Amino acid sequence: MRGRKWVPALLAALAFAWPLVVPATTAEIESDVVEATLENGLTVLVLEDRRAPVVANMVWYRVGSADEHSGITGISHMLEHMMFRGSEQYEPGEFSRVISRLGGRENAFTGRDYTGYFQVIGRDHWETVMAMEAERMQHLKLQEDEFRPELNVVKEERRLRVEDQPNALLREQMMATAFFNHPYGNPVIGWMSDIEAYTLEDNQAWYDRYYHPNNAVVVVVGDVDAERVIAAAREHFGDIPAGELPVAKPRTETPQQGERRITVEARAELPYLMMGWKAPVLNTVDDPVDAYALLVAAGILDSGEASRFAREIVRGAELAGATSARYSAFSRLDDLFLIAAVPTADTDMDTLEAALLEQVERLQDEPVSASELERVQARVIASEIYQRDSVRSQAFQLGMLETVGVGWRESDRFVERVRAVTAEDVQRVAGEYLVPQRRTVAILDPQPLDGDAPPEPASVQPHGDTAGGM
Hints:
CATH class of the largest domain: Alpha Beta
CATH topology of the largest domain: Cytochrome Bc1 Complex, Chain A, domain 1
Strand content: 15-25%
Strand order of the largest sheet: 1-2-6-3-5-4-12
Low-confidence stretches: 1-29, 453-464
Shape: globular
Radius of gyration: 22 Å
Largest sheet: 7 strands, mixed
């Protein structure tokens, strides 16, 4: 991480908190986003937002942990780190020093479906950082003396963010149990045995394979002129030749034959329960109504103090100190509908699990009331309108949608599709997807803490599928 935050708070929230995984939703985006495709295949998206003299510049690559295979898991994240360790024009660390001198902020992130790099900078300097990104897209300089120290950083990052965090460790092992041959079963940061075996040649091969303009999306949001941005993109990226991209093999998950269960023993103060059901996403479902109905179902279960988990399980029966529900429709491949909870001191795990499943079964057995449905729909829409206050979040939403293959225009349809979800839709998808045959249950069995153990988080914050920092 080189002393920086592991991942921006926004990206961490996007990884799990269901109200934040959906795209911005306004007619302004529909009318104001300007899109261009360069001759080399680079996609450029520009959104003018002149409310403040700042600009978010992002470059997204359509490669992440889902593209990796056994033996090199986490290599996308490792390469993300190496992108800051020097190029033909910039010495190691100089990229970051230049941005700091210009008064900007920058970081990077790796997900299952993408790797991204961003800067937030004053309106007078956006073209400078764009040119810098174009330079390292083509001229990254990988060096052994830079690779070895950075490899140690990544190993320590895994220890701190996963192996020393019992909730994260539980989620990682649950994903590996839920998915047999589906790439989301591998952690974004990689398995430690694979990390330890990385070579400089592995990084070079990954860069040569995926870091091409025809596998990238440039997103610029802020106080800019769209025509000028597109002209600058042509100037700085236009001469980079398109690359020959590998043909992705289908990786269809082996059908699940029944409920799967695991118990993870780890040092922790409190036990922890997670359950996940295999569910389709917009890219894989026949009817988008199913994906949006699942998103609303997650909101009915857990979306604030008025949600069912909070009312019935936390405050009512006092079985859990904290709960969470998450579903994202925006990924490349099928994902999981997830719920999680921390039991209170007097609650055993069987009782808590039964209470959570009772609320899931209630979605299947009876239609949600009109007032509750309207409240959840309004909460989703309101949370997305609020996000327009940040140029970075707008850029993230546009880039994420475009990179995973949904397309940024899905943001235009979001409000309409959320409002179109009916009580019958929610009941139907709960009955079709949230069934035992699709379910994986993971239980954290806390072991005694020693003096060096890290403190347990006070609330449910299951780690998502994004690794970041440099």
